Amino acid sequence: xxxxxxxxxxxxxxxxxxxxxxxxxxxxxxxxxxxxxxxxxxxxxxxxxxxxxxxxxxxxxxxxxxxxxxxxxxxxxxxxxxxxxxxxxxxxxxxxxxxxxxxxxxxxxxxxxxxxxxxxxxxxxxxxxxxxxxxxxxxxxxxxxxxxxxxxxxxxxxxxxxxxxxxxxxxxxxxxxxxxxxxxxxxxxxxxxxxxxxxxxxxxxxxxxxxxxxxxxxxxxxxxxxxxxxxxxxxxxxxxxxxxxxxxxxxxxxxxxxxxxxxxxxxxxxxxxxxxxxxxxxxxxxxxxxxxxxxxxxxxxxxxxxxxxxxxxxxxxxxxxxxxxxxxxxxxxxxxxxxxxxxxxxxxxxxxxxxxxxxxxxxxxxxxxxxxx
Amino acid sequence: xxxxxxxxxxxxxxxxxxxxxxxxxxxxxxxxxxxxxxxxxxxxxxxxxxxxxxxxxxxxxxxxxxxxxxxxxxxxxxxxxxxxxxxxxxxxxxxxxxxxxxxxxxxxxxxxxxxxxxxxxxxxxxxxxxxxxxxxxxxxxxxxxxxxxxxxxxxxxxxxxxxxxxxx
Lengths: 373, 168
Prior knowledge:
The structure holds 2 protein chains of 2 kinds. Chain A is an alpha/beta fold.
């Protein structure tokens, strides 16, 4: 450094300056800060010595149907609206309890309190025996069955399909190719549609640089650690800012509770089945077949223009996994007359989980759906 | 010390740090074989040096206030965000994607034979112990999945027949 020793700074910091008296206001703020420091130490010691397992997924639910690893859950609600909502999240990557993280911080709790008959498709955690499962199987075999079971269980004749992240393009493929299942509304939350605009993953997975066939042939399933590495690389400063914010808010018990739950979820990565990953990267990221209308599933062409029901698209301004322009692309591709796009503050996760989501996102989705359900 | 002047001073230092750090990062990305190695601490040293200097200056001009902590937090947040953007730009280039692809190729070239050898060794150990291998267990699980699929198709068929019978 040269100019001054660090010890001198600490000396002056602890003794203050004799020339300028400390005002009562500053003194009070210091007392508050010292109390916060005490609470930080207390909470830190508790987190280290006696970590409490966060109780996630507390909204009451019932398993309606299971198919291999996948489960369909129905959540308890007043069921004010006739049209049930089938929520389709991402397959692989992470577990779906992020959508029902904690009481008061749960998208599912919000929707059920609003009176929606809410169903969650939990794709499950796939093992090596599922390496033959393709994306096409998910769209043509699992999704239609889950939709039928939703209708059967709710007694309704139509349903709303709400896709989040990867669940949105999968659902879009399903809605576009299964006119026999009556879909009343389709909601895309942070789901990429035009893969020419998917940001860093799009560049890294470009077929000139990434040989997906070789990758799958050697590894089989894409291991959870590999998925973790990919997402960590996407935002290398994430852990640093997460830990900095934790330290800053460590005095706040509510923050610590939320952090523990979110941190548990954020560190629980899920592997991709081999053939699913091959098709996901090859057809979607590398060839953008969905948006170009070149995709075929179950012998049927997948044309997004065949989606004619009301469509609601939600993008997140700071989403670096599914940038808003890649999500918004659905609006121009569908054949619906009633369609709307909103771009909300937040990132890919904070769009649907956390305090911001409760204020900005969930009410927008429920308000849009209510008159159409 | 006037709080706005202190903040301005911090931001000036921050900008300088970002410029120096970005140059160091760019040098590392574009490093050519045979060139002198880049010191990785070049990313962090400017922040530490300049941050401590900033604190030193502010503390020498008046009594310490907890507001300094808030300013320091804001400074770190902005610093991390700026770094995130700089890294995002560097990693969004084709050069980076190409380097990443090459690294993965090399990793797969070693990983493939290593995995195969590991699996064969494990299989022979399990065989000598009279235990089923991973592949055999996986096969059984796969058969169960297929069986479940067949049962479902049968159920669908029966449901369709019943529906048709009801319609008559």
